[in-house]
Fold:
Amino acid sequence: MKEMLKKIREEAEAAISAPDADLEELRIRYLGKKGELTAVLRGMGKLSAEERPVIGQLANEVRAYIEGEITRIAEERKAKELEAAIHSAKAYNPSIKMEEAVGSYHPITLVQRELEEIFSTMGFTVEDYDEIVDDYRCFEALNIPPYHPARDMQDTYYLENGQLLKTQTSAAQNAIMKKYGAPLRAIFPGRCFRNEATDACHENTFFQMEGMMIDENISIANLIYFMKTMLSEVFRRDIKVRLRPGYFPFTEPGFELDINCLICGGEGCPSCKNSGWLELCPCGMIHPNVLTAGGIDPEKYTGFAFGLGLTRLAMMKYGVKDIRDFNSGSLKALSQFEDN
Ligand code: FA5
Structure:
């Protein structure tokens, strides 16, 4: 019997390490109810009392070995698949030759539509909103009075009539609360503008997608659930994220949700300012003052809001290393993405 066990182990070892091995089939062949190892164990009744524990121990060792190898190879394959997925995303090439001048969707449109679909199935309405807004909508209604230091982070372009190009999709929060009242679930994608020193992950014109959910008893648990669902639906694989405290005058409490950079795998590169992480989706519980400004009773209702960096999401999803490519207007660069 010792010999049989040795043979099973050797055969299993060779079979599992074959590059095209069907691991599930091998698991059944060796470890299943009708498997080879189980058949040996069944025959143990015929052994003497002295032999039984020795063979039993050996059989358990062989079982543990085969199980361990199958799991190890399966994990190795998964890691390779992830690597390949990241690598294929990196295959994006801004200088690709355009064979034919056929139209295609801009990658941000593709990501935006995908998100709209995801949130629609979760009961969110999709709202459109102005690009030119007044100071009240963009700042004051969001608990950012004149001279509040938070304004310094969002310098923008002002029109002669005092209106401005919106710096954040949060500028629509007040109008949407007034339009629907509570309860409400809405997302509102839009173009934002900031007087920004541009680099690989900062543009002066970029897209965000705001989301709000307001109802009785909405908590941070709801917020985390929706963020997780959204990310797993968009990326369709495990993505490392981190949630840390963040300050926004219009949330209490507020969070920063960062994503492990998919361009460098977290090693650090210009796309993530060498930190390995990219700020993607700040969020938080809506501040009571903001609810009041929107005509919603903060004693009765609570809600969460998030401001997803849509352009950065498109960078991560499609492996675009430099955010400025999106506004480059280069058809060579922009026509190589597909809806999936
Ligand atoms: C805001 O704009 C808040 N309105 C988000 C928010 C909404 C917080 C609701 C809480 C509740 P922030 O300035 O961090 O926050 O921008 C949000 C996201 O937009 C960033 O994480 C980033 O992904 C993206 N973003 C911001 N500035 C730029 C830029 N210059 N270029 C490209 N993406 C940017």
Summary: The beta strands are 125-126, 132-133, 164-165, 184-193, 205-215, 241-245, 251-260, 277-279, 283-286, 302-309.
